[in-house]
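Feature request, filed as a ticket because there's no other form

It would be nice if the structure record came with a short human-readable summary line next to the C-alpha cells. Right now we just get the raw output. Example of a typical job, pasted below so the devs can see what we mean:
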Amino acid sequence: MQNQSFVTEFILLGISQNPYVEKIVFVIFLFVYIATICGNLLIVAAILNSSVLLSSPMYFFLAFLSLLDACLTSVIAPKMIIDCLYEKKTISFGGCMAQVFAGHLFSGAEVIVLTAMAYDRYVAICKPLHYTTIMNSRLCGVLIGVAWAGGFLHSTIQLLFTFQLPFCGPNIIDHFMCELYPLLKLACTDTYAFGLMVVANSGFFCILIFSMLLVSYSVILFSLRNHSSEGQRKALSTCGSHVAVVVLFFVPCIFEYARPPISFSFDKIVEIFCTILTPLLNPLIYAFRNKEVKNAMSKLCNRIMIVSIEK
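Raw output as currently delivered:
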C-alpha cells in the first residue's frame, strides 16, 4: 500500500467554506448528536432494564438497532462537529480507511437487523401459533451474529478494494467525511471497474433487500384482513414504525450507491440524512409510537431519579 500511495492524509472541505455557516452547523449538529446518543442509548437501557421487553424478539432487535444507530453516527458526527471549529480539516490515510470500514460495518449490520425485524413481524402476524417456536432465543442470537458477520464482510470487501487504489495527489475531498465516490475521484488510476463493484456491493444489495422488505410488508398487510379490528390496529401501528424506519434508511442509501459512480453536489445532504438525521429519527419513531417502549423508558427514568435522590 505504501508503494502505491503517496498520500498520508486527506483534506476535507467540510459542509461549507463559510466560517459563519460552520459555527451554526457546529451548534445544530452538536445538539443533534447529543440527542441521538441519549435517545438511542435510553432505548437500549430501557429494554435491557425490562425483562418482559428483553424476552420479546421485536424489542431485542430494537435494542440492537438503537445500538447500531448510536455507533454509526459516532463514526461520522464527532469529527464533523469538531472540524467545524477549524479552517483546515484533515484526516490521516489510516483514519480515512477506518471511517470507511466502520461506517459500512454498522450500516451493513443494520440492513440485516431491519430484515430480521421484518421477518419477526411476518411470523408474529402470519403464523401466530408458531411464533414462540420459530422466534426463539437461539434464532435471535444467530440473526445478530449474521448481522455482525454480514456487516463485517461487506465493509471488508469495500476496504480491500479501496486499499488497492493508488493515491498520489491531490488529496482534497469535497466532503465532510471519507466516502467511496469522493475517494474514487482522487485515485490516480482508472476506477471504472471499482465503481461498478461499489454499485454491485452496495447499490444492488440495498435494492434487493429493500424490495424483499416491501414484499414482506405487503404480505403482512394482506394477511391482516382476517384479523379483528383491534388486532389490525396494533399490527398496523407496529408495522408502520418499521416501514418508516426502513424507508428512511434504504431510500437515501439506494440514491447514494445504486447509480453511476459519480459525485453530485447534494451528496453531502444525503449523507447527513443517512448518518446523522436517520439515527435521530429512529428512536423518536419507536418511542412515540410504541406504548411499551414509552412505559419502559418512563420506569427507567423514575428508577434513576429514585437512586439519585437516595444518594
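Something like this underneath would help us a lot:
The longest helix spans residues 93-126.
The CA atoms of residues 256 and 264 lie 9 Å apart.
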